[in-house]
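Page 47, continued from p. 46.
Same chain as before, 177 aa.
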Amino acid sequence: MSAALFLGSMVAGWLVGLLSPEFTEGFVEGLGEGFGWLRGQPRYVLTMVILINNAGKCLGAVLLGPLFGLAPLGLSVVNGFVLGLVAFVVGSERGVTFLAASLLPHGVFEVPALLVSVAAGLWEGWLMVKKLSGEPVSLLGALRDGLRLYFRVALPLLVVAAFVEGYVTPEVMRLVP
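Result:
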């Protein structure tokens, strides 16, 4: 379910990029302005900001999952949409090879971490619905399992992803004309 939401949102972002150039341009400019302060920062600062941002969002998806899965749903949909929209812009301007170079090195770690966190949060949300309908479920046990999954799987992947995004991805991108 988390993968389907993420992929569907990516496709939606790509389609919005294709069908609404004005919105896309404004949106991407807004992203650039929001993160513009990171330009020129040392790589370790960029790496730490990426890690804190991603780790916080994924932890939030797990911790807030019992609120009917709304936080993990939002995390998956928003991140997928933004990725699709930005991928459309980068792919259109720089080509598919550059797009792959800018996403794949760290994305192979970051996306699975996001999907695992979202899946845990959605499961907790589903259990909340079942609990409210009178079924005996252990919401606390599901939250404990979700946190265990976050700390054992998602967070280590996010640490690797942040390092790769801060240090490796820029070097791979430089290799693409």
